[in-house]
Amino acid sequence: MVKTETVRARVAPELKERAEEIFDTLGLNASQAITLFYRQVDLHHGLPFQITIPMPDSHSPNASTRAAIAEAERGEGLTECKDADDFFQRLGI
């Protein structure tokens, strides 16, 4: 019988849920994914990926988008539409 150790970590519930959905898609459970990570750390003698600060991209709002979000949260610059047809008409679609 193979001996095992327990690994415990505190993780934000939302992050855990998103990660476990990806593990499931890959056919892994959390224990298998963690074991895979540990094996890669052992093989690489360090983290198996480069640690960098990502540059803003399509998933990160730029300054203009952040300003628009802040404006909307203050209730400024909003346009009310009667229904979807009114919305699309205002957009010119």
Give a verbal description of the structure.
The chain is an all-alpha fold and 93 residues long. It has 2 domains: 1-48, Arc Repressor Mutant (Orthogonal Bundle); 60-93, no CATH class. 51% of the residues lie in helices and 0% in strands. The model has no long low-confidence stretch (mean pLDDT 90).
Task: Give a quick precis of the structure.
This protein is an all-alpha fold and about 90 residues long.
Number of domains: 2
Over the alpha carbons, how many angstroms does the gyration radius reach? 23 Å
Q: Which secondary-structure class do the elements indicate?
A: mainly alpha
CATH topology of the largest domain: Arc Repressor Mutant
SSE layout:
Blueprint: H1 13-25, H2 30-44, H3 63-73, H4 84-91
What descriptive keywords fit this protein?
0% strand, elongated, 4 helices, mainly alpha, 93 residues, Arc Repressor Mutant
